[in-house]
UniProtKB/TrEMBL annotation:
Segments passing through the bilayer: none
CDD domains named among the record's database cross-references: Tryp_SPc
Region (Disordered): 261-298
Matching Pfam families: Trypsin (PF00089)
Species this chain originates from: Thrips palmi (Melon thrips)
Subcellular location: Secreted, Extracellular space
One GO-annotated biological process of the protein: proteolysis
Keywords: Disulfide bond, Hydrolase, Protease, Serine protease, Signal
Record's protein name: Mite allergen Der p 3-like
Keyword Aminoacyl-tRNA synthetase: no
Major place of residence: secreted
Gene (UniProt): LOC117651595
Cross-referenced InterPro entries: Peptidase_S1, Peptidase_S1_PA, Peptidase_S1_PA_chymotrypsin, Peptidase_S1A, Trypsin_dom, TRYPSIN_HIS, TRYPSIN_SER
UniProt signal peptide: 1-20
């Protein structure tokens, strides 16, 4: 079976696509300490970290866990990164249900405890999302109810500069609280995890997906490494370059979790439950739990 690539929405495209409080949020290179929510990119699918290692929130202080609030409970849904005291960067497909209240936890390596909990008051999604191509512009900026208290474990992320090209074979790090195996046979990890993979040639990725309904656009980038991947629940989390200290993208969609095989074979993929052959965006953690075990789709 072919190892399936993870697909991200690339962070280095510049556009004015999200309107917040009568002002346009310019999606441009966002530096640590800036006060405006800006710059967006995308990355791998909505998954969980497969084949990775535990990490700490102090090392990844820009991480945010986005979940659904019901009373005093917090059910994790997707990942995200801190843009500034009032804004979180995530993936648009995580917020299909606008009837629920979303909540963000920052400043803790654990998804279930610690840190700061704040409610999401507004969700900004590009008007182009899902129109030109499926899961194109898979980006969301969340505004939270009050200022985050910045400190050692809560910091704004630095985004890749606008226009910077991503070359093949660049090592990137995926970070999240997602499942650690494709079949969900292991319990949901309580602590933050990360895994390193590599970007691949854009043309090669486009060719491999050309036989399916999903299109790899110029706003996306692809990555892979045998038996290492993101999985359900990691959607919206960062694609990070440790050498530059910058976020390059947002985990968006892909086919399967860490499947491997001959790269020369034709693109074939089957869900563990239905047996159908089709590429799909990764499920959110809520959808994965509702549907039971399965491959990294949603």
């Amino acid at each position: 079976m072919l190892f399936k690539y993870c697909v991200f929405v690339a962070l280095a495209w510049a556009a004015q696509v999200i309107v917040a409080e009568h002002a346009v949020l310019n999606l441009r290179g966002h530096k640590r300490g800036h006060k405006s929510a800006a710059a967006v990119a995308a990355g791998l699918g909505s998954m969980k970290i497969v084949g990775g290692l535990s990490t700490s929130i102090v090392k990844r202080a820009f991480m945010a866990n986005v979940g659904i609030a019901k009373g005093n409970t917090f059910t994790p849904q997707c990942g995200g990164t801190i843009l500034d005291k009032r804004h979180i960067l995530s993936a648009a497909h995580c917020f299909k249900d606008r009837k629920v209240t979303y909540r963000v936890r920052v400043g803790s390596s654990q998804w279930a405890s610690g840190g700061q909990l704040v409610d999401v008051t507004k969700i900004y999604v590009p008007s182009q999302y899902n129109k030109a191509a499926a899961y194109d512009y898979d980006v969301a900026v969340l505004r939270v109810s009050k200022d985050l208290v910045l400190g050692q474990a809560v910091k704004a992320v630095t985004l890749v500069p606008v226009g910077q090209k991503v070359v093949a074979n660049t090592e990137i790090t995926l970070i999240g609280w997602g499942y650690t195996d494709a079949l969900h046979s292991e319990p949901l990890p309580s602590a933050l995890r990360e895994v390193k993979i590599e970007t691949i040639d854009q043309t090669e990725c486009e060719d491999d997906y050309s036989g399916f309904d999903l299109t790899v656009t110029d706003r996306m980038l692809c990555g892979m490494r045998a038996e290492k991947d993101s999985c359900q629940g990691d959607s919206g989390g960062p694609v990070f370059n440790d050498k530059t200290g910058q976020q390059m993208g947002i985990i968006s969609w892909g086919m399967g979790c860490a499947q491997m095989g001959s790269r020369e074979s034709s693109p074939t993929w089957r869900t563990a439950t239905s047996g159908t052959s089709s590429p799909r965006p990764r499920r959110t953690r809520r959808e994965a739990a509702r549907r039971g075990r399965g491959a990294c789709t949603r």
